[in-house]
Structure formats: structure tokens, C-alpha cells
Amino acid sequence: CGNRVTELEFEDTPADQLYNEALVLMNAGDYRTAMVKFEEVDRLHPHTDLGRKSQVMLAFASYSRGNYQEAINSAKRFITLYPNHPDAPYAQYIIANSYYRQIPDVTRDQADTKQALDAYQVLIDKYPDSEYAEDARNKIQATKDQLAGKQMEIGRYYLERDDNLAAINRFRIVVEKYQTTRHVEEALFRLTESYYALGLTQEAQTAAAVLGHNFPQSRWYKDAYSLLEKGGYAPEESKSSWISRAFQGFSLL
Amino acid sequence: CNTGESFTRGQKITPDQLEQVPIGSSREQVLLALGTPTSTGLADGEAFYYISQTSARTVAFQRPSVRDRRILAVYLDDDNKVRDIAEYGLKDGKVFDYLSRKTRTSGADLAFVSQLLGGLMNPTL
Amino acid sequence: AVVSRIVVEGNSRVDDATVEAYLTIRPGESFGPRQIDESIDTLFATGLFQDVTINQQGGSLVVRVVENPVISRVSFEGNRRVSDEILEGTVQSRSRSMFSRTQVQADVQRILEVYRRRGSYLATVEPQTINRGENRVDLIFNINEGDKTKVARITFIGNGSFSDARLRDVIQTKESGWLGWLRSSDTYDPERLQADQDLLRRFYFNRGFADFRILSATADYDRERNAFFITFTLDEGEQYKFGSVRVDTTLADLDPEQLERKVDSRPGRRYSAEQIEKSMEDLTLAANRQGYPFASVVPTGERNFEEGTIDVVYRVDQGQQAYIERIDIVGNTTTRDYVIRREFDVSEGDAYNRVLLDRAERRLRALGFFENVRITTSQGSEPDRVIVTVTVQEKATGKVSFGIGYSTSDGVVGDLSVEEANFLGRGQYVKASIGGGANTQEAEFSFTEPYLFGRRISAGFDLYTRISEEHDTQAYDMNETGGGLRFGLPITEETSVQVFYNLFNRDVSVDESDCAAGNLSLAVCDSAGGRITSLIGVSLVYNTLDDQYNPSEGIYAKATTEFAGLGGDTYFWRNTAKARYYHEVVPAFGVVGLLGIEGGAMQALNDDLRIQDQFFVGGSKLRGFDSSGIGPRDRATGEALGGRYYFTATAEATFPIPFLPPEAGLSGAVFADAGSLWGVDPDIMSRNGGSNSVVSNDFHLRASGGLGVLWRSPFGPIRADFAVPFIKEDVDETQVFRLSGGTQF
């Protein structure tokens, strides 16, 4: 059926010709046939560098075709075989990207997000100066952002149900552990709302003040300010609170 | 027929527990007598808040509404001695609508077709 | 010892640098036998090598390795019942991975496990390798499946109080009928047999048998017939009733009498484990409300053999003092977090209370979205903090089903429906179906959101179109198209209120020439044309059935009042009520009794009521009579005109037919129906030609009795009823034999 390429034809073609044909197929998007050719390079010339490179390309082909689990398996095999091969960082990068592509929205289990984060972290630790380290750092920021988003989702769930004490603990997780993410502004605002609803106005003022110092232009700060102002309070921070301590290293004061 | 249900949230501190932490008692004493606080304070010096709240609904489909709230605040001074103890009730709470805006998040949402095909793969007999 | 350099020998595919990277020995550093063992272990752990030896020769360390061959292809021969994809998914050895003997042996076991799970205990697997040179091999698993091992017979010994057939319904393992190939539950699976024992225990504990024990559950394999004979040996013990019920507590200011009123297990009622669990839950909640968040309830029972009662004492004490730090939900790749979290009455920061977590677990299982739900706890960040982890294992909740059926009134009917119980992981229910038969076609779409705005209000809407052509009991073509909004509000666990609004257009068309020639009643001809009905209604439902599809215990009662006239052409006020009570009359023989009554009354609110708006009684509502077989009728032409008042009553007992082998799946029923339909709308009567143009318009009781046979055939339940009307009006249309049945694939 169709141009099902069988293995036998390649018995004697040199490795680099086969490898280049496969590359051309890859660029043309015919990943299926490309994979067969890369497999042949690995089969016929296993101990050559091209043989090893084609194993990485096989992982990349699976990744491009969207079967991420297969990509992860073949990339992991490559790293076990050749941990300090020049393409090892690229294999690690494929593993991390495969998890990253499967990240679901925040209302569902973030297992893949966590695995992506760990995989990028391994990339930065083991191959700090590889060309992929820069993108790995950005992707780590994105995965942290997603994990923070999940905490906010649960926090808002409890806030809507007036379970302020449950909500406060969730928003604190964001402020303590996910300080560098975009959600920290909203987390501080939600803390203002939660404490204010409980009547602990001092705490509300502190949260609002920290929000103001660190994100003066943030819309969340304007909302916090107007919320307190309606009750005749103004944001004023006390230095020794854990939030300001938590922000010491960060604050733009 | 009583169809109502009520739920107590958080940590309720009984009067005799409270007697064990007079002004001046140490931080460890507070932790021993009252347990880990529901939430610690953000404001000046360390503050322990023990928050409990009862909400109830008269009929099963309603969302429970807050009927009573008690916050016990234990304020500690700089050398971790109890400086002051205050109680807040439901009347101190402020009533307002929470903001509905959300910070945008990413991640692939679930497409119905993929979910349905999941069902197709293993028809239940 | 110290070496100056490391020599790697015997490797071809794996380069020296790689081997050295896995060693814990470095040139120039001292090392001992421990480092050598460590290095050997790590090298083996990579799965790359068959053999590794390390020894020191002079100043250099010689690492001799024998590489595992690489698998170029994995293939399976001889597998018919299990596809290659499934087998590839289970085995670990894959193309381009390293071949290892231990790995292949493990794969053989995995394949055998797949076949055992599908009931083939005779399957054998022979791994075979073909050398491809260059240290590469092809791996072939030669499988001999052997034919399927069936469950020939399930017998129970010692079950005095419940029949074998009744207990066979309780357990999941089924006997292989001659259509066994359709089902997979008729194979022998040790895990399922284990689950069956729990199901039996729960069944008996809930029916008063507190001392029930399973002496043995054996599965004997008969080699010739390649089938299993399963035997459960039971010791039922006494059937107990609840004796005295007492609550005692060490907690101050908890008043035991007041708590006792909360307890369900009242003296004299049959002992049931479920009621004890329910009482424990109620007591815990009561204690919580009175300021004891950590109350733990422990029931103890003292048996009183003479009177056959159990005195239950609920001890309410202070439980473990801990607060929930976080509720983490794991495994929900489809279901959204809030759909699971909202089933918890307890939330983060609350007192830890196992009974409330069990209630949430029961609710989550009842959703039907999950294969399995497990709530586990682990130590939190502080000694008095606990982290609750909810692990869910989801299952495909989408269903595409196709059904065919036959009934004497509609002929052959078929339907195709697509259903999703957890639409987009939001817990919403969606169903679309089309169906048709000899003289009816219909299409329907329905959507339900169980938690409107986060409250426990289930809101939904339905759209439908139904065409029924003229046939012997219906003298007109009718096409109804419309939709409705509905809201379900649960009041307590058993009672709920439903508020609904329906809007539909009904087109009735009659044969003009028949009307002109006078062989169709004026009322029927008059009802031709299109009319819009816009009605609003409220129902109160009380439901304690133990099983919604096959009830054997409990009551279902529903009362509805509807007002049509919010616009549209139809104006009436209609009330209906029905109640059905199921009870296991003679549990020993699986006899289930049913008492049912139903009634309705309606009042036109203008003079323009149509016959189709009225009640029609007959067919399944009153067996022995044709559909719309009773009630007011046109004296000349005989068409049923419907009535404004009706009532029906039924008494029935169903029982497995004795002396027949149980796998025949035959059960019988004896029943008596009674009822009447009367009072056609006066305006319809006058338009039909006055009161003498209508016959049997006032209340006459009809009654019938009969036998029914229910066959649980491999194609689904088929029921045949023989009903003889012994009190009837001579104008009534009877129908002695009715057959209906159908199945869903």
C-alpha cells in the first residue's frame, strides 16, 4: 500500500547520503519516511557519529509528529547511551519540550507542567552553557507561572465560597513560592480582599502597601487602593511583616 | 422537618484553652495551648490568628452562608511574649463583591471531539 | 589502591567516555572494593551490558564489558484475540532498545497476564531471537493463545435466605451463556472474585446478617472443558434486628438523648451496615455542630441470641486533633478541579474528619466519571496539620449506543444516541439521539449542568421533535417540535423539587376526505392544524429506590402541577401524581413485589382545548387494553377522544421461574391492573356533536389480570405480557398480548 519504504533497499548506501535524504524528508514534513531512513542509518552504521545523530533526529521526528511519549523514550535512551555527546543537551531539550507541549489548562492536573519544569532544570544544571539553556530559563518561568495559576484558581474557588481562611493560605503559597510570576500581583490583591472581608484591616493594609511598592502601576494595586479607600483605610506597610521580608530581596523600594 | 445542614470551618478555641495563654506567656506556650495558628499575621511583629466560622444552609441546594465567625488574634511583641489578645466577630467583617477579573493562564483546553473519541475507543457493553 | 588510567575493553556501540562517566573511580584517586562494586552496579543499571568485570592490572584499571545486543524489531506471532498495539504497549523491550534476558522474561509474564485477564489461562509465550549481525537481534514472541477459559457454573452453598439467582445478580463474575463472546465479565479473574466476596458481604450486612461469613470461594479448573467451576460456601448466621440503640460520650455538654434522635438504626428495624454508617455520619455532624470538630464515632454491637437482636452502642469521643492543610487533587486529566472539590463539604483549614472525607469519596464515586477514587492523608508541614490527597482514575464517560427494539404498538424501533456524562470535564451531561420506527420518528438533544452558579441546582434544557403517523389507535398524523428548560433543586437526600418551562408546537393533520365523508369524529377533524403550547410546571419527587434501573426496595413518588397559558394557544391546568413501592416480599426466592398508583386531573381554562391535550390511558399504563383503549369515545366512528380525569393502580410480583437453569435468565411476573379514564372536555363534546355523540364518558372501573415473562436474552431484556381484562366496557379496545424489548449495543 502506497510507498511503504522497506528496509532492504538501503543495504549499501553510505551513511551521510541516507542521513541527508532523511533531513530533506524532515524539512518537507514527511516525518514517517524520514524516521525509516534515520532508523536505517542507525541500523547500518551504528558506531558512526551520524548513527548517533540519527537517534536524536528520530526523537525529534516523533516530537514533530506529536507522539510525545515516544519522543521522550527515545531521547532518554540516547542520553543514557551517550551522556556527554554534543547532542545530549538537544535530547534533553526534546524531553522537556515534549512535556511542555502537553501542559493542560490550570483547572486540571499539572503533572506534565511539573515534569517539564524538572526537565528544563536538568538541562540548565547539566548543560549550563548549551544553546538551549536560555530558552529553558524562559520555559521554566512559564511553567512556574502555570503552577502559580493553578494555586490562584483554587484560591479563588474558596474565596467565592467565603472560605477566606482557605483562600488566604492558597494566595500565600503564590506570594511565598511563586514571587517571580505574573500572578503575584493578583495574589497580593486577593490577600487584601480576603483579610478585609475578615475584618483584619491591618493585614489588608499591609498586603495592599506591599502590592503598591512593588507594582505601583498595577491595575490590581488601583483596585486594592479603591477597595480600602471606600472603608476609610489606606495601604500602610509595617516593615517586619513576613511579606515585606519575603520581598526584601525583590522590592524595588 | 429539619433539612438544614451547618458546617464549622477552621479552628475553634475553647475558653479554657484561652486561659492558658495570659498576657506575657511565651510563643511556645501559645503554640502548645492553641496549636498551629490558622494563619499568621502580615502586620507589625508576629501575630497569630485562630479563625473559625460556621456557615449553614436551610435547604440542600443553597450555598451555605456564613452565620457566625470568630477570630482570636494573639499579638506577640519583639521578644516573643504575648503583648495583646483581641477577638473579632462577624460584625467586624466587611461585605463587598470580590473582583471577577482573572490573570490569564495558558495550557491546552480539552476539545470535545477528543473526549468523545475516547469513549469510542472502548464502547461499554 | 590508586590507578593512573582507565582502559575500557569489549565495547563497540557504547564509547569509552560513556563507560567512564558511569564509574565512581577516577584516575589518581584512591578507591577500594566498595567503589568497584558500586561501578559494576551502576553499569548494570544502565541496561546496556550483559556482563561487566573490573580489575586492576599494574597502574591501569581494566573495565571489560560485554554489550547487550540492540533489538532492531519486536514482533508478535499467533495473537488473534489481542492486537499487536496492546501487546506492544505492555512489553518493555522496544525496537532500538537494548536486549536483556531478564527484560524478555519479564515481558513474557506481562503478556501472560494480559491473556489471563481476558480469561485465556491456556496461553503460552515463547520468546525467540534472530541474530542480525553487528550485535543486533530481532525479538519475536511466539504466542499460542489456546481457547478462552469460561466460567461454566457459579454455585452457592449455605444460602438459605437468598436464591442463587438473586446472589448471582449481586456479584460481577457472570456465567458464560452461549453468547459469551460478547461479554468479558464471564471469564475467571481472581481480582474480580475477590471483589465479588466484598459485594456479597456488603449485601448480607445490609440485610440483617451481622454474622455473615464466607467460608470459602473456590475456582476449580476443569481441563477438558477448559472452564472454571466457582463455588461460594457461605455461613449466613442469624438475621438480626436492631435491639436497643444507645449513644454514650465522654465529651462534656453533649447530650446523649438528643444525639440518639439523630440515629437511623431504630430498634426493631432490620440490622443494616449502611444504616450504621449513615448514623455515624449524622452523629459526627451533630457533634461538630456542638463544637467538637474532632469527634470520632465508633459503633460496637452486642448480640442477643434469643431475641435475634443487636444492641448498638455508638461511642462518641475526641478523635485525632488535626487540621487539613491542603486538599490536593491528582490524576484529573479530564475532570476540572472544581468539579471534584465541590463534592467536599469540608475545606482547607477545617478540622480533619474521616467520616466527612468518606462521604465525599462516596459522592465522587456516584458521579460515574471515575474508575477509582482514593482519598489518602499524609503528614502536613506542622505536627497538627494533615495533607489530604484525592487520587482519581478517570474512565471514558462518552458513550455511543445503538439500540433496536420491537413492541406490538410501535413495531420495530431503532435508535442511535451519543452521550457524554462529563462534557469537557465540567461534569455536564450532554445527550443527542435520533430514533425511528414503523410509524414514529424522533430526534432529541438534552444538556444538564448539575451545579448552576456553584449551587447544587441542576439546570438543563431539552430540544425535541417527534413525528407519529396515523395508525390503528391514532386517527391523525402528529408532529410535535419544541423544547424546555428545567431546574432540579434537591431539598434533602431523598426529596427534590423540579421547576420546568416547556414550549412546543404541535401540528395535527387529518384526512380531509374522511372528515368530509363523516367517518372521522368531528372532534378529531376539529383538532387539525398547528397550535403552540407554552406551559410552566413544578414537581415534587421523593425517591428512595435502592437501584434506579432494577429496583427491589424503596419508594418513588412524584406529584406535578402544570399551567399552560403563558402565551401560546393552549390554556389548561393539569395535575398528575404517581407512586410506586418496591419491596422484596420473599427474599429467599427473589420475589419482588410492586404496588403502584397513578392519577391525573386537568381543567381547560378556555373553550379551545384539543383532544391531544387530554389524557389517554391504555397499553403499558393499563395492561390488557390497547393504547388509548379505554375512556370517552366517539359513538359513531369509535375514535378515542381522551379524558380530563384518569387513575390507574397496579399490583405485581416478579420472581425467577423455579426449576429452570438460572443461566436461561427467565423470570415470571403475575400482575393485576385497574383504572379508568373519564370526563371529556365539555367544549370538545359539544363541538363533536353534543353529549350523545360520546360514549363511556363517565367513570367506569376497568380491571385486568395477567402473567408476564421477562427474558434477559443476550440481545437485552425482552418482556411478553398476557393480560385478560375481566372488567371492561364493551366499547373498549382490548389487547391481550403485548411484547416489548430491545437492547443497547
Structure commentary:
The complex is a heterotrimer of chains A (253), B (125) and C (745). Chain A has 253 residues and is an all-alpha fold. Chain A contains 12 helices and no strands. The model of chain A is unreliable at 1-10 and 249-253 (pLDDT under 50). Helix content of chain B is 18%, strand content 31%. Chain B has helices at 15-19, 27-34, 112-121, and strands at 5-10, 39-40, 47-57, 65-76, 82-89. In chain B, strands 1, 2, 3, 4 and 5 form a 5-stranded antiparallel β-sheet that branches. Chain B is extended and about 65 Å long. In chain C, the strands form 8 sheets. A 16-stranded antiparallel barrel of chain C has the order 16-17-18-19-20-21-22-23-24-25-26-29-30-32-33-35. In chain C, strands 1-3-2 form a 3-stranded mixed β-sheet, with helices on one face. In chain C, 30% of the residues are buried. Chains in contact: A-B, A-C, B-C. At the A-B interface, helix 7, helix 8, helix 9, helix 10 and helix 11 of A face strand 2, strand 3 and strand 4 of B.
